[in-house]
Amino acid sequence: MAVSVKQFKTESDSWWCPGCGDFAVLASMQKALADLGLEPHNVALVAGIGCSGKIGNYVNSYNFHVTHGRALPAAMGVKLANRNLTVLAAGGDGDGYGIGVGHLTHAIRRNINVTYVVMDNQVYGLTKGQNSPTSDLGFQTKVSLKSIEKPARPALSALSLGATFVAQGFSSDVKQLTRLIKEGVQHQGFSLINVFSPCVTYNAINTYDWFREQLANLDDLDEESGRDVTDKGAAMNMLREYDGWVRGLIYRDPDSVPYEERIVGYSDESLSQADLSLSDELWSKIVSEQQ
Ligand code: SF4
User: Fold this and answer.
1) What are phi and psi of 269, to 5 degrees?
2) Beta bridge pairs of residue 64
3) How far is CA 243 from CA 5, 93, 149, 152, 237, in A?
4) Ligand 1 centre and the CA of 236: distance in Å?
């Protein structure tokens, strides 16, 4: 039976400012899940803290709104407990590349089968405009001093750490972003989709037009363009050449094996459906050991 986008919508009023880039990420995610024929009860979305973390309120699926920077370990737990679920994690650049960057490192290293969508607006929007890990050198707002730090380049960092799927999208291109999320979900392993998603309220510098200009050279990378998306060296060179300002599918490892398939003895049956009750014999043994 065909699944409609409407099935992934909720009744929640939106908390986001009109024009926020995160609306397009939400629409792309809902469309991608529906296009893949997934039903809401087969999807879990784990969201971090920040404006972007509100996305969990707007997608009709299992949802888990976790503490700051902790979306990935929670998502990994969900996936391991029920391998039949399609698991996504979502958050912002502050959540994922600041406080959560240690978890990102290990999610990549383990190759957990989770699609991580990061809404990168180069600012902390929820707390009204502080510099974030991806803010440019010299970036300044009413509440932040001029940044004297180099910005993080998440796609290049992820590739260096061994990520098996890396893509970048832009909120003004829902069609491309939908395709990237679909490909990320279908990928067997960890997929990072960094989305340039402007904050129209607290970032007057990195606007839609600003991003468009930055991305003007390479804004439609995909497999059909004839590029070999499995050539990691070429992908890294391209990111270095354009200082990370490209969008589309950057790299995909065709031989990726997800974490759960490498666990010796991991049951085919999801933990959520397994009988975990203690046998009388085992319970008696535990009780006798306590006495
Ligand atoms: Fe979006 Fe910025 Fe408003 Fe947050 S403050 S909802 S990031 S526009």
Assistant:
1) -85, 135
2) 46
3) 35, 17, 15, 10, 10
4) 31
Distance 290 CA to ligand 1 centre (A): 55
Residue 221 in 3-state DSSP?
strand
Say if residues 184 and 115 touch (Cβ distance below 8 Å).
yes
Tokens read off for 252:
């995909």
- pTM of the predicted protein model: 0.93
CB 59 within 8 A of CB 45: yes
- Composition of the chain by helix, strand, coil, percent to 5: 40, 20, 40
CA distance 154 to 107: 14
Gap from CA of 51 to ligand 1 centroid (Å): 6
What's the one-letter identity of residue 135?
S
Taking only the tens place, the pLDDT of each residue in 128-162 is: 889 999 999 999 999 999 999 999 999 999 999 99
Q: How many of the other CB atoms lie within 10 Å of CB of 190? A: 30
123 lines ligand 1 (CB under 6 A): no
The H-assigned helical ranges of the chain are 22-35, 55-58, 71-81, 93-94, 101-110, 154-161, 174-186, 208-214, 232-241, 280-290
- Name the pairing type of β-strands 130-131 and 123-124: antiparallel
pLDDT at 244: 97
Would you say the CB of residue 27 lies under 6 angstroms from ligand 1?
A: no
User: Mind listing the pLDDT tens digit for each residue in 275-284?
Assistant: 767 778 777 8
pLDDT at 223: 65
Report whether residue 161 contacts ligand 1, using a CB cutoff of 6 Å.
no
pLDDT digits (tens, 9 = 90+) for 23-43: 999 999 999 999 999 999 999
